[in-house]
Write a structure and sequence with these properties.
Layout lengths: L1 H16 L9 H5 L6 H7 L1 H10 L6 H7 L5 H11 L23 H5 L3 H6 L11 H4 L5 H7 L11
Length: about 160
């Protein structure tokens, strides 16, 4: 089954470049990776996954959202989901605690990006291998650091 996905991804990629099929055919599907969840990452990266689950606060980030949810407006809660869950509002990402419980915490893909292409091809270039401070600042920006005292820690218990 894996080789079929790889072959399909190759054909779709060539189609988007205009090399095999009419340009525009299937390009949206070929270009946009989707979220797969940290457990999938753990299949090939068991040591990093075990360390992340044991030591990283991100691996349990939905606990604080669930505790505070009753006192928050829908807009405030949505703001929490953007940083405390995986892929909120994006293909394959968190939609609700009931519907996508495997995406309820800030998992591997929050820092490394959507993993579907990487998991299908095993291509290291298909995932962000080394996140930067700029990647962290999506959530750990100046206003949140002031408000909550959170500072980005690269590799902070994650690996």
């Amino acid at each position: 089954m894996g080789w079929r996905r790889t072959a399909l991804a190759t054909v779709l990629g060539l189609a988007c470049l205009g090399l095999a099929l009419p340009q525009g055919a299937f390009c949206a599907e070929a270009e946009e990776a989707h979220y797969v969840g940290s457990k999938i990452c753990g299949g090939c990266h068991p040591t990093q996954y075990a360390s992340f689950m044991k030591y990283s606060k991100k691996a349990h980030s939905s606990k604080s959202v669930r505790l505070m949810a009753k006192g928050l407006t829908t807009e405030e809660l949505t703001g929490c989901y953007a940083c405390h869950t995986t892929g909120y509002g994006r293909p394959g990402g968190f939609t609700s605690f009931e519907g996508t419980p495997e995406m309820a915490n800030a998992g591997c893909e929050v820092c490394h990006g959507p993993g579907s292409t990487h998991t299908e091809t095993a291509d290291p270039a298909a995932i962000k291998g080394k996140p930067t401070i700029a990647d962290c600042e999506t959530c750990h920006n100046a206003s949140r650091v002031r408000a909550f005292g959170y500072k980005p820690l690269l590799q902070g218990g994650a690996h």
